[in-house]
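Try this one yourself first.
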């Protein structure tokens, strides 16, 4: 019942948010700009501003409002559902930083496996849909100045991390923990929903992997801020690397999925398992921090 109520709140919030966003665009820029958004005419005047308005009002704020309203009003039990406490060993944040960067080869491997999957003919539309989504992402991540980079770092990196983690690792993972009576099942179910929510079939596996990492970070630490930190590192790194690549500060292509080899994949997997074990030991036995 909690899951159904949560979905209903999210559905209503998304509808209201998109209507408000569309209305703001219509008032500020007129019907032509709104039409340009629906037609993906990125060259239209004010397209980028309108896109950000629609993203904020139609997606970001509804995803934030839903778990907050659910945890504070519907239940109400924010401590259990949002888990926004800071009572965890701060050494965990250092471990998360290492895990996220060392996981890059595994994410690349999963991305390559995902890209090789062949969709049946009746699902070919998914590739076109993802190409259109990537086109919009590229527009939003076009950073001409360092201030553009800082804006994207705060919005795409930090704010997106907060709202998505509040919803998935906050409310939904807690709901599934109560439903299944199994923490591992709750983490994996939530990770599957997290990946599916992004509507990107060819990015499903790496995002599933990230969702599992985020889920265990929260389950073992008891705080949502561990997964927010991990999510921010993932998104923020993409923003910074994209900016540096656009301005020829580095030679790395952020879209290159063939940077590592099989030996690096295996080494990455082994190190992550080791760091994960340390993370769990510290999170579940705080006495280790004092040693």
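Now uncover the answer:
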């Amino acid at each position: 019942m909690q899951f159904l109520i949560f979905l209903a709140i999210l559905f209503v919030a998304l509808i209201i948010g998109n209507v408000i966003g569309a209305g703001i665009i219509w008032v500020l820029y007129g019907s032509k700009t709104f039409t340009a958004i629906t037609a993906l005419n990125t060259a239209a005047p004010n397209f980028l501003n309108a896109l950000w308005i629609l993203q904020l009002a139609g997606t970001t704020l509804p995803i934030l409002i839903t778990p907050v309203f659910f945890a504070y009003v519907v239940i109400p039990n924010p401590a259990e559902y949002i888990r926004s406490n800071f009572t965890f060993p701060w050494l965990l944040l250092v471990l998360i930083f290492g895990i996220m960067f060392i996981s890059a080869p595994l994410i690349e491997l999963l991305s390559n496996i995902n890209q090789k999957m062949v969709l049946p003919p009746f699902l070919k539309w998914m590739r076109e849909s993802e190409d259109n989504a990537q086109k919009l992402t590229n527009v939003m991540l076009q950073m001409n100045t360092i201030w553009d980079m800082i804006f994207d770092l705060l919005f795409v990196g930090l704010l997106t991390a907060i709202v998505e983690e509040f919803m998935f690792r906050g409310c939904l993972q807690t709901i599934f923990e109560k439903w299944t009576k199994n923490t591992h099942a709750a983490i994996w179910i939530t990770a599957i929903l997290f990946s599916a929510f992004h509507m990107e079939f060819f990015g499903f596996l790496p995002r599933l992997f990230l969702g599992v990492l985020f889920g265990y970070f929260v389950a073992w630490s008891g705080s949502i801020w561990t997964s927010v930190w991990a999510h921010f590192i993932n998104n923020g790194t993409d923003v910074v690397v994209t900016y540096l690549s656009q301005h020829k500060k580095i030679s790395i292509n952020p879209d290159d999925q063939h940077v590592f080899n099989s030996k690096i994949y295996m080494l990455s997997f082994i190190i992550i398992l080791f760091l994960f074990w340390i993370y769990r030991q510290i999170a579940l036995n705080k006495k280790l921090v004092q040693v």
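Discussion: Residues 146-180 form the longest helix (35 residues). Confidence is low (pLDDT under 50) at residues 287-291.
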